[in-house]
Amino acid sequence: MRRTQYSIRKLRLRAFLEAASPIADRLGPFADLDGAWTLLSDVERVAPEVVEDVLMHHSVGVWLSRALRQVLGTAADATPLWSEVGWFHAVAAAAAVRSGQPCAVTVPVVHGAVTLPTVGAYRLGGRFPVGQAKVVNSASGTVVEVPGPVRWQPVRRHRGSARGRTIDVVVDDLGPYREFGGPVPPGPLGDGEWDEWVKYLDEAWELLTARHPGAAEELSAGLSTVVPLDARRDVFAASSSAAFGAIAMSPKRSATEFGEALVHELQHSKVNALLDLVDLHTSDGAAAHYAPWRDDPRPLDGLLHGIYAFVSVVEFWHTQRGLAPAALARRAEFTLAHRARQVGHAVDGVRSSVELTDLGREFVAAAAVRLAACRPVDSPPDVVTAVEEITAEHAMTWRLRHARPDPRAVLDAVAAWLDGRPPGHPGRGSVVPAAGSGESLLAALLKLRVLDPREFDRAPHRDGPDHAYLRGERDSAAEGYAARLRATPHDVASWAGLGLALDSDAMRRAPELVRAVHRAVAVRTGAAPSPVRLVAWFDGSTGTAPAGSG
């Protein structure tokens, strides 16, 4: 995969140069792209392995993706054209410095630093957020010609070994493109932070080589970079299609968390590489699919990514759950059951899609086989129940936010309600991505109750329909949610809670239709129907009900 990715990256670099040449007059001090290309070519003749290492650096992949968009007129943000395109000179200079090739190259200063991928960063002492400097490499060494003092910080690497397997990674805390987006300032780790990252990386490697040898073999071959993210950012782990082999993550609390993040995110690199070679689907890329691990609609690519990555997470926890210490045993059981149910739901939803190619169907079928081998069969009953409720509530919430019912089906259902007839076919609606995300209070409480019963028992304000539901008082909970809906008819959490409290098939299938009919009846008659009776009518468990009845 790496060899294929390298070939693709070189092709994209050539495409970038061809697209940038006509606008060279707009690049100021970085107009000599041919000179930078010649320098890179000279290095490749004497040290091809150095050029490969530099071009395959994750930051170069991210930069190249952004630079291509810049020169094609579809820039992702307001980063200056001349500075972003000019970073090609820093790429060429990095290769020259690595190989000992003499050069004098003008490079951009980004966020107060001259950064050479795979080499390190020269941080300027003055206020110099964006500008230019000259990198001069000669037999006597490398210097950066710029006014004021310069502080050199080399790229940090870590090599870990366990059971005959080695992991050798860059820990990138300097590069401007390290976080897979626009340029960011260097964020060098302090000595204590570095020690903590290395400790968890080594402990995770010990765990993976001992209990997950297949995953360890993949990581040894495919992982190139770990990017530390600020602890204040809510990012468990992330990867990018432009950064093969790189994983960004926030600090972890344990080797198990660290290991899970590595296993999960490497799968995305594998799928990204696969998608550069074959077509798994014929979708137009519209964000219209439900991924149970996300709050937003996903394109089919994203759903397939998630299925593949989370199957590996299920396999990870299938092995880990019997090894977790007593304090973490419940979390291991819950995570395994939760992820397995999520992936199962996604596989069931996509396996019959007409947009899958033959290879796409094989891809999903293979994931289903792996999932079947790891499905928990002896999870504690309360964990199973909590997972069923949490996933059902999440699916209803997603549909209420993003699904739009068929207008004809709404009109037909309103007429049927008013005429005292059973509801008809729900029709085919659409997906329209909308704002709204985050876990509901009910889902958070369901999770807390199963993971930390003592903390759950200390929760204050134990009134309202959510707590009634948790006490098993389903009728009281339904009445409470209905009361909320009388005050705020569009409240997503109350509609989803009502669906759970009534154990409604209709709400699981098409809650957006139920809500739309509720609103349409209110508009047409001036009186909203009872949410409880309306849901029961859709479920077919009652006779007819006059509109607006309580």
What does this structure look like?
The longest helix is centred in the middle third of the chain and has 25 residues, at 326-350. The termini are far apart. The chain has 21 helices and 13 strands. It has helices at 2-20, 33-46, 48-55, 58-71, 81-99, 191-211, 213-222, 255-275, 300-320, 326-350, 358-372, 381-402, 407-419, 441-451, 453-457, 465-470, 474-487, 492-501, 505-509, 511-525, 531-539; strands at residues 103-110, 113-116, 120-124, 130-138, 141-145, 150-154, 156-162, 165-171, 225-228, 237-238, 246-249, 403-404, 430-431. By secondary structure, the protein is of the alpha+beta class. Helices cover 54% and strands 12% of the residues. α1 (2-20) runs parallel beside α4, α12 (381-402) packs antiparallel against α14 (441-451) and α13 (407-419) crosses α20. The model is unreliable at 542-550 (pLDDT under 50).
Write the layout of secondary structure elements.
Blueprint lengths: L1 H19 L12 H14 L1 H8 L2 H14 L9 H19 L3 E8 L2 E4 L3 E5 L5 E9 L2 E5 L4 E5 L1 E7 L2 E7 L19 H21 L1 H10 L2 E4 L8 E2 L7 E4 L5 H21 L24 H21 L5 H25 L7 H15 L8 H22 E2 L2 H13 L10 E2 L9 H11 L1 H5 L7 H6 L3 H14 L4 H10 L3 H5 L1 H15 L5 H9 L11
Parallel strand pairs: 8-9, 9-11
Antiparallel strand pairs: 1-4, 2-3, 3-6, 4-5, 7-8, 10-11, 12-13
